[in-house]
Design goal:
The complex is a heterodimer of chains A (310) and B (377). Chain A is built from 13 helices and 2 strands; from the N terminus they run ααββααααααααααα. Chain A is an all-alpha fold and 310 residues long. Among the domains of chain A are: 39 residues, no CATH class; 155 residues, Orthogonal Bundle (MetI-like fold). In chain A, strands 1-2 form a two-stranded antiparallel sheet. In chain A, β1 and β2 form a beta hairpin. The termini of chain A are far apart. In chain A, 28% of the residues are buried. Chain B is α+β, with helices and mostly antiparallel strands. Chain B folds into 2 domains: 235 residues, Rossmann fold; 131 residues, Beta Barrel (OB fold (Dihydrolipoamide Acetyltransferase, E2P)). In chain B, strands 6-7-8-3-9-10 form a 6-stranded mixed beta sheet, with helices on both faces. Classes of the chains: A mainly alpha (310), B alpha+beta (377).
């Protein structure tokens, strides 16, 4: 309150800065306590020995990571490749999710950006409409749709397209369908933001200068909407990698993802340090992938003009 | 040999959101020859931009045809037409540097990199931007961006260059400089330019031929002096330059010319012009064609006091005076007429006291400077 008053009444820069610092102090403090704190705790836990009946022993212990990556070979703790397999599957499903979200949202974003202002606002409202209903309820609806006696199979049978109900639910496909469904708004909004900014006269200029539709897309539309593509796919990829609600409802026991694994370690197995180690590994993998992704894009951006130089 | 560009009976209607049909092009025909600088001039909504966009391929025609070198281009998409455009907002690609922007048409046409570099260099030299190739277009000033857009549009040597109000975003001094440069560039390149503008001064400065458009129709097509001194109708007279339009009636006509009378009863003999007696006419008098002098003390303000038979003589009273640098723009009230616009030469001698409102003045227009339009204004 005092901060806001200082900002509006204090004419000089120093007071404004002080006010800004005061305003930012609360969220900074909040994030430090409730985000960085737990994260640091998890990091510490991942290097501690699991207690016999849950909890932790405060001794340094590297076999949590050993169980994941392969050097654990003791009587109690041994390497099991299943964890890496679950990681790989999670990565693969998250990649598919990002890809299909992009595939669905990119054309839709162009379509919406060309609508009249009223239709456009309505559409954006519709895109955010699922947020009004609980995720679990929505996913149960998908269970009803996808199960052998569900709507999808009944429709396919009725149309004579299949002879026996398809096994959709409790497969990787069901998980991808569910995650695409859940994350579509997260892909759409950043994509739409950058597609809407695209100046239509640039597209015309490209065509006017002799570029075909495909050349125009590749050389003008794609590079200029790339920030939205990058933003959207990161925002979809990260939470789908760690998602555990969708795989547990639509993937059943067969399609376990890292999210489920971590949840299991914390809640069922009560092996907190191992759960923390799994969590840290996912986080490190995500960070690594992001760095590589952004680096690659940045190099592409630099390479484009230098291509013309040669 | 067929003309470079031929537009035949082009028609295009738009339907406004309220359901009203508006003709953007209404049976318009036009030919453009090689190495010609043609300006499409008209107020907004006159169809000039629509015409340009139908040539470049971004708008379709409802009926009519567009031919380049005798062959219709209507079935060719925008990217396959031998014309390039300089866009109003330049439409430079923000993610490319200057060289890649300029070389874009060569790049998509698959011109080898070495030749591309050479031709981009030439194009940049033509617009005096040598050495700017590596810059980002975002670092350029408005005038520089304008030049890059120009270089980009001419690098592939199109047969025809379309320019859509390219100078409207520049400040006045830069605009005048670019007008001269554009004109020189057009001659140097030998490419025909079709230049769209709503700025009549710009049109007069640069054009070989001006096409005045209104309501999707050509009002007049002619050289700058033609449309300025001999406008085809009142619309052209009003749109180009400042004008005084005086309603008149033809009193009599003989072999030597015609005698006409304007609204306040003043008569003027127009030599060499045979008009139909009794017909209504409009006299166009440009403000700079009016000689203004202080009224003689004895003559008073009575009409025809300074009777001279080689022109139109009027008396009036100065109502307003605006100093515009080179000239004074004056408004003179004459009994029985609408206020007349008069342009008087400025200069250090012409003290503003000489143009004090309220002063009685005599006006004289040599009859050769009067242009007659048919009908009432």
């Amino acid at each position: 309150m005092t901060g806001r008053q200082a900002a509006s009444h204090g004419p000089n820069a120093l007071r404004r800065q002080a006010a800004l610092a005061l305003l930012l102090a609360a969220p900074t403090l909040f994030l430090a306590v409730f985000f960085v704190g737990p994260l640091a705790l998890m990091f510490v836990y991942s290097w501690l020995e699991p207690g016999l009946y849950g909890g932790v022993e405060w001794t340094f212990y590297h076999l949590n990571f050993g169980r994941i990556f392969g050097w654990a070979n003791t009587r109690y703790e041994s390497f099991d490749p299943v964890y890496l397999r679950i990681f790989a599957r999670s990565l693969w499903l998250a990649l598919q999710t990002s890809f299909f979200c992009l595939l669905l949202c990119y054309p839709a974003a162009f379509w919406v950006s060309r609508l009249g202002p009223r239709a456009r606002n309505l559409f954006i409202f519709l895109i955010t409409l699922p947020f009004f209903v609980s995720l679990v309820v929505r996913l149960f609806a998908w269970v009803l749709l996808l199960r052998p006696t569900g709507f999808v199979n009944q429709a396919l049978l009725g149309l004579g397209l299949v002879e026996r109900p398809l096994e959709i639910i409790y497969t990787e496909a069901a998980v991808v369908i569910g995650m695409v469904y859940v994350f579509i708004p997260f892909m759409f909004l950043p994509l739409y933001a950058s597609v809407e900014k695209l100046d239509a006269s640039l597209v015309e200029a490209s065509q006017d200068l002799g570029a075909s539709r495909f050349q125009t897309f590749r050389k003008v539309v794609l590079p200029l909407t790339l920030p939205g593509i990058v933003g959207g796919s990161i925002i979809v990829f990260i939470p789908s990698l760690g998602n555990f609600v969708v795989p547990s409802l639509l993937g059943g026991a067969k399609v376990m993802m890292t999210g489920n694994l971590i949840e299991q370690q914390f809640l069922s197995a009560r092996n907190w340090p191992f759960g923390a180690a799994l969590g840290m590994t996912v986080m490190a993998a995500v960070l690594l992938l992001l760095v590589v992704y952004v680096r690659l894009l940045a190099r592409d951006d630099d390479a484009a003009p230098s291509g013309a130089r040669s | 040999m067929p003309p470079l560009l031929e537009i035949r009976d082009a028609a295009r209607q738009f339907v406004t959101p309220d359901g009203v049909r508006v003709a953007a092009l209404d049976g318009l025909s036009l030919t453009v020859s090689d190495n010609e600088f043609v300006t499409l001039l008209g107020p907004s909504g006159c169809g000039k931009t629509t015409l340009l966009r139908t040539i470049s391929g971004f708008e379709d025609l409802d009926s009519g045809d567009i031919l380049i070198d005798g062959a219709s281009i209507l079935d060719r998409p925008a990217h396959a037409r031998p014309v390039n455009t300089v866009f109003q907002n330049y439409a430079l690609f923000p993610h490319m540097n200057v060289a890649r922007n300029v070389g874009y048409s060569l790049e998509v046409a698959g011109v080898p990199a070495r030749e591309r570099t050479r031709r981009v260099g030439e194009a940049l030299e033509l617009v005096s931007l040598s050495g700017f190739g590596e810059r980002s277009v975002r670092q350029l000033s408005g005038g520089q961006q304008q030049r890059v857009a120009l270089a980009r549009a001419i690098v592939a040597r199109p047969k025809l260059l379309l320019l859509d109000e390219p100078l409207s975003a520049l400040d006045r001094n830069l605009r005048q400089k670019m007008q001269e440069e554009l004109k020189l560039l057009q001659h140097e390149l030998g490419i025909s330019f079709i230049f769209v503008t709503h700025d009549q001064e710009e049109a007069l400065t640069m054009s070989d031929r001006i096409v005045v458009l209104d309501g999707g129709r050509i009002q007049q097509c002619g050289g700058p002096e033609d449309v300025y001194y001999r406008p085809a109708n009142a619309f052209v007279a009003r749109f180009i330059g400042e004008s005084n339009l005086l309603a008149a009636t033809v009193v009599s006509a003989d072999a030597g010319g015609s005698l006409v009378e304007i609204a306040d009863g003043t008569r003027v003999h127009l030599a060499g012009r045979s008009l139909t007696p009794g017909a209504r006419a409009t006299l166009l008098v440009r403000p700079e064609a009016i000689d203004l002098s202080a009224a003689s003390e004895t003559g008073g303000a009575s009409a025809g006091a300074a009777r001279r038979d080689d022109g139109l003589a009027l008396s009036g009273r100065l109502a307003q005076a605006f100093f515009g640098g080179t000239d004074y723009r004056l408004a003179v009230e004459v009994a029985g007429l609408d206020p007349l616009k008069v342009t008087a030469r400025g200069g250090i001698g012409a003290a503003s006291a000489g143009f004090a409102p309220g002063r009685a003045v005599s006006l004289f227009v040599p009859q050769a400077a009067i242009h007659v339009l048919e009908g009432r204004p």
